[in-house]
């Protein structure tokens, strides 16, 4: 079964929905409960994240960046990043190239 279009729990208080990908670009929604933490990590993919709802604190290469509804953040390839939701929040993430690690689940 393809992982598209259904919500899946990925960490405590965090769920995601992967949308059908294009050839080199993909998108997913990520929903957070208050105080949910997306563990710090890095990947070779370039990422843009857009805050649809809520407020979040991103750790990005050792600095903190706050996002609120309507804000966006570019995360370069290989950059260490993580996030904590300050209130119930939703992000729209885009990646290039495709996150094959997420699509193969």
From TrEMBL:
Gene3D superfamilies tied to this protein: Jelly Rolls
Domain Cupin type-2: 30-93
InterPro entries reported for this sequence: Bacilysin_H2HPP_isomerase, Cupin_2, KdgF, RmlC-like_jellyroll, RmlC_Cupin_sf
Stored SUPFAM superfamilies: RmlC-like cupins (SSF51182)
Pfam families cross-referenced by the UniProt entry: Cupin_2
PANTHER family reported in the protein's UniProt record: H2HPP ISOMERASE
Protein name: Cupin
Organism: Xylanibacillus composti
Organism classification: Bacteria, Bacillati, Bacillota, Bacilli, Bacillales
